[in-house]
Amino acid sequence: MSQVIDVILNGKKTKLNVEEDAFLVDVLRDLGNLSVRRGCDTGCCGLCSIWIDGKPTLSCGYLAVRAVGKEITTIEGIEEEANKFAKLLAEQGADQCGYCSPGFIMTVIAMKKELTNPTDDEIRQYVTGNLCRCTGYESQLRAIKIYLGVQ
Questions:
Q1: Residues 72, 10: contact at Cβ < 8 Å?
Q2: 71 near 16, Cβ under 8 Å?
Q3: Which of 89, 106, 134, 135 is deepest in the core (most CB within 10 A)?
Q4: Got the DSSP string for 94-135?
Q5: Distance between CA atoms of 78 and 56, rounded to whole angstroms?
């Protein structure tokens, strides 16, 4: 059975028609938010990372009906900031195939809002749920540190 829920999606009030067993990753992709990617379906890879009320959330394990009244942000809603960090990833050789980039970028931008002057270990811990099969993580760490302004 479907129901209509009200959310704020990328800054706009939106009504979503959702099935009671639909996961948010599928609902968002159906709406054209193709940056939200399906990967492991177990909440382990980070490809489906979005923000709910400003906090990184894995949308593959989040039932859409739970999003009633929530503010949902995908990379499409923060393009300017996302492009800024994506450029740093490329400059540091950390962009490779790019399939994991949207979820990774969402997580890093959230980290910038949450942590002040994080250590390398704190950065690694924060992004631990975002897997990349193409790069070594050192180039990503360099880009993150430049983006956060920590050395």
A1: yes
A2: no
A3: 106
A4: --TT-TTHHHHHHHHHHHHHH-SS--HHHHHHHTTT---SSS
A5: 14
Instruction: Kindly report the number of other CB atoms within 10 A of residue 87's CB atom.
Output: 13
13: left (phi over 0), alpha (psi -120 to 50) or beta: beta
Q: What is the DSSP letter of 17?
A: E
What is the rounded distance in angstroms from the CA atom of residue 135 to the CA atom of residue 71? 32
Q: Distances in Å between the alpha carbon of 53 and those of 8, 71, 134, 142, 150?
A: 9, 5, 31, 28, 26
pLDDT tier at 43 (50, 70, 90 boundaries)?
Answer: confident
Is 49 in a helix, a strand, or coil? strand
- pLDDT tens per residue across span 49-87: 999 999 999 999 999 999 999 999 999 999 999 999 999
